[in-house]
Design goal:
Layout: H1 10-14, H2 20-39, H3 48-73, H4 93-111, H5 117-122, H6 124-130, H7 137-159, H8 164-190, H9 211-219, H10 223-247, H11 250-253, H12 258-265, H13 278-307, H14 315-339, H15 341-344, H16 348-352, H17 355-367, E1 370-374, H18 384-387, H19 395-401, H20 415-419, E2 425-429
Antiparallel strand pairs: 1-2
Length: 434
């Protein structure tokens, strides 16, 4: 009788055994989280700087110690080992608890900001330094958001260090968040200018193209503000279609967008939780295009009222704008979009609610050169590509048929190609095929 012996690589055997650095990281992260919660009650009101350092910096260092050694210990072929056994990453009790905590934070931030007054006060010195103005809840949110992208961005750089594509896009996302979403608006505020976000535009930043916003920016008489009015219109109707034609929606969703930056860094551990069922796809199509239609109608209504002196729709357009801001701008993009990372995956907002994703998706599907090509003869149907698609696309079904992937929802993150053991998938921007 022949006996078959299987040799398991040592790094796979040891990949789930935490080192002393990881245990230290877990301790620091836990300590920082506890201090953060205690500080929200005013326990460290007399030492705000110390509170900020312990709750934010120490937590960040702890997360790095917890994640980086594990990333360095595994190879590209074993980096997803034990993912499905993780209680945090695969909807266990820890994952649900994290989801509840994230959701609760967004609820407090949006509707009960008084509960975070002590946390906001701890950032007063930093706000005075870079904004020359008092700290508020949105500065707190921007600081936490940027710190999260930076810390988990380092994790991404280590985890996907074998892929030049992932290294470049991760650096791009970190830079866009740090410079365009955090430092530049802060410096503009320090100079007495509006806090403008040059990498956001309609329909994601829906109010930038509203008549009240454009009129205010143009009538300000400030050259920088007037330039931004022209910039946001040009990005929406000219530059975005051109870039999407050549590169697909990945140029924005996976390289620049702030929502994408958080999804690709903080949300990366949860990408396998995206629903790949046909039912989810049908819901996704109706929801995301419904949101795009909603904001398009509201924008048209506001412009018609602006042109005809508010006699066409009256207060209806304003009411619809307020409803959109509450339901989509706050509830969906924030509370559900991030709070549900551990449950529904990292792109729940991008899949089901982002109007920018819908707009770019239409351009990508019908006019873009971007596609993911497949070599069906090499596919072994392992399913890694579908499992780790954060947009819930059944990539394996395309690969099995040897069919190129041209989907409106694909953000071109490239993870499907990275986890394929046979090199079946390739991201390309060639001549459009009819």
């Amino acid at each position: 009788m022949n006996i078959v012996t299987l040799t398991i690589p040592q790094e796979v055997v040891q990949s789930n055994v935490p080192s002393w650095l990881e245990r230290l990281g877990a301790a620091l992260t836990t300590m920082g989280a506890i201090v953060f919660v205690l500080g929200s009650t005013g326990a460290f009101e007399t030492v705000p700087i110390l509170y900020s350092v312990i709750s934010l910096i120490v937590s960040g260092v702890g997360i790095l110690l917890l994640t980086v050694p594990a990333g360095l210990r595994v190879t590209s072929s074993s980096m997803n080992t034990n993912v499905m056994r993780s209680p945090v990453r695969r909807r266990g009790l820890a994952g649900w608890s994290l989801g509840v905590a994230l959701t609760l934070f967004y609820i407090l931030l949006y509707w009960f900001p008084e509960t975070l007054v002590h946390v906001v006060a701890s950032l007063e010195p930093l706000s005075r330094l870079i904004r020359n103005s008092p700290a508020d809840r949105w500065f707190l949110y921007g600081t936490l958001y940027t710190l999260a992208v930076l810390v988990f961005g380092v994790r991404m750089l280590v985890r996907y260090r074998h892929s030049r594509y992932h290294l470049l896009r991760t650096v791009s996302l970190i830079t866009a968040q740090l410079v365009f979403a955090y430092l530049l608006p802060s410096f503009l505020a320090a100079m007495g200018e509006p806090e403008l976000y040059v990498h956001y535009f309609w329909p994601l930043k829906y109010d930038y193209i509203f008549p009240s916003s454009l009129s205010s920016m143009w009538s300000s008489g400030e050259g920088l503000t007037q330039f931004f009015a022209v910039w946001t219109v040009a990005m929406t109707v000219v530059i975005t279609p051109i870039l999407t034609y050549f590169y697909g929606k990945r140029w924005y969703c996976s390289w620049i967008c702030g929502c994408g930056a958080l999804a690709e860094t903080v949300g990366d551990p949860f990408r396998q939780n995206a629903d790949t069922s046909l039912r989810a796809w049908k819901i996704e199509r109706w929801m995301v295009h419904g949101v795009l239609l909603f904001i398009t109608v509201v924008t048209v209504m506001l412009w018609l009222d602006h042109v005809y002196d508010n006699v066409v729709f009256g207060s209806l357009a304003q009411r619809l704008k307020d409803i959109y801001g509450f339901v989509i701008g706050a509830m969906f993009s924030g509370v559900i979009g991030v709070g549900f990372y551990p449950i529904f995956g990292s792109r729940v907002w991008c899949r089901f609610g982002c109007p920018m994703a819908a707009y770019l998706g239409i351009l990508q599907k019908y006019m873009s050169r971007f596609r993911i090509t497949t070599n069906g003869g090499q596919c072994i149907s392992c399913g890694n590509c579908s499992t780790y698609c954060e947009m819930g696309i059944d990539v394996r079904a395309y690969a099995q048929r040897g069919e190129n992937i041209v989907r409106a929802s694909c953000v071109g993150c490239g993870v499907c190609a990275s986890v394929c053991p046979r090199g079946v998938l390739r991201l390309e921007s060639g001549a459009k095929q009819r």
